[in-house]
Amino acid sequence: MKLGPNLTLGKAFGIDILLHWSFFLLPLLVILLSVTQGDSLGVTGLWVVLLLVILASVLWHEMGHALVARRLGIPILDIMLTPICGLARLARAPDSPRDEVLVALAGPLANGVLAALCGLLIWATGREFATEPDAFPGDLLLTLFWIQTALFALNLLPIFPMDGGRVLRAILAMRLNGSRATELAARLGQTVSLVAAILGLVYRFYPLTIIAVFLMLTAEQEIRQHRLYPDK
Ligand SMILES: [Zn+2]
Prior knowledge:
The protein is of the alpha+beta class. It folds into 2 domains: 1-155, no CATH class; 157-232. 63% of the residues lie in helices and 10% in strands. The chain contains 7 helices and 4 strands. It has helices at residues 25-36, 41-71, 97-124, 140-155, 163-173, 178-202, 206-228; strands at residues 6-12, 15-20, 76-81, 86-90. The two termini are 35 Å apart. Bound molecules: zinc ion. Residues 61, 65, 107, 155, 163 line the site of zinc ion (ZN).
């Protein structure tokens, strides 16, 4: 374990796993919210466990991207985990739109496989899929099933720079040139994100607004990058 701006958690399949320093704000926030709500120490502990399960699920998702990319001959720099997302950092972009689709789909598919396995276990033991909300986060199998299902479904939404948006960009790039495809996919993603950000404000579900604004800014950055390096 190496200390620095990023904490190196270790290696998996020869890939460095880094935790961005700001990640620690998340457990602090969860503990603070739980304590101010008057939760018992046990309940606060369960929320922290839930956070760790989410972190492990995001890592599993990024591992899917990284292992498929490496199989396609793309070197992997590392996997970075931040409070909002995970990122498998590739040494270069995939060579073709087809490879781009494969790398983009690998993350959600990793979650889909785990969701199916958990679902099978829940079904085989004759348990209910939907229980009272307070069954979470204590019921680990059920929690894991819903987290994997959510990561699978949300990441496939065609909102660039999410995986579904990258698949859309790659499909567009089969017909248009690379930067035109990126711009189109990114602008479409930004429009959907803007609607989500406004809905978050209207319904006072602020995490949605924060994530939507983050996605809009990341999409903007990608458009600029593709203008600088148009043929990628
Ligand atoms: Zn992904």
